[in-house]
Amino acid sequence: MEPDGPRPSWDTYFMNITMLVSKRSTCLRRAVGASIVKDKRILTTGYNGAPSGIKHCLEVGCLREQLNIGSGERHELCRGIHAEQNAIIQAAYHGVSVKDASLYCTNLPCSICAKMIINAGIRKIYYRSGYADLLSQEMLQEAGVDLIKLDSNKQRGNR
């Protein structure tokens, strides 16, 4: 049986998996997925939603909507945690080092996630869409974390 098209590049492969991970999100505003990858192996994944054992926004509604809080503002006023945070937490929980790894994320991380990414030792971020947080980009660039925007139309070919 032959594949339906050219074999995907590693970036396309990992981003496609990350997009699938985002479908587990319980956020009512934005479904985000993250995968931490090292040496062409997925170490952990995460999606945005409430912590384990806590009711999800799907069940109780969105606090941010109720308080009319805009995207990229007042991150602490939310039941959920971000996909990148969940991926890093999963690594810590299971004793997996993410030093010198890459992060594939459906969105450019916010400034809170950027700080965690920097301190976790993640060296590259591949993302599909931006995010309304200029401080994030400034800190990541200052820390020497490579930011690579993947254009979904140009993710073909082998690597």
Briefly, what is this?
The protein has 159 residues and is of the alpha/beta class. It is 32% helix and 18% strand. It has six helices and five strands, in the order αββαααβαβαβ.
Helix proportion: 25-40%
Read across the widest sheet, the strand sequence of neighbours is 2-1-3-4-5
Tell me about the largest β-sheet.
5 strands, mixed
- Which band does the percent of strand residues land in? 15-25%
For the residues shown, what is the average pLDDT?
88
Distance from N terminus to C terminus (CA atoms, Å) equals: 22 Å
Task: Please provide the count of β strands.
Answer: 5
Q: Number of helical segments? A: 6
Over the alpha carbons, how many angstroms does the gyration radius reach? 16 Å
Extract low-pLDDT stretches: 155-159
- Shape label: globular
Order of helices and strands: HEEHHHEHEHE
Class from secondary-structure proportions:
alpha/beta
Protein model, in words:
The chain has 159 residues and is of the alpha/beta class. It is 32% helix and 18% strand. It contains six helices and five strands. The protein has a five-stranded mixed β-sheet with strand order 2-1-3-4-5, sandwiched between helices. A hairpin with a 2-residue loop joins β1 and β2 (41-47). α5 (111-120) packs parallel to α6. It is globular and about 40 Å long. The protein starts with 9 loop residues before the first helix and ends in a 10-residue tail after the last strand. Mean pLDDT is 88; it is low at 155-159.
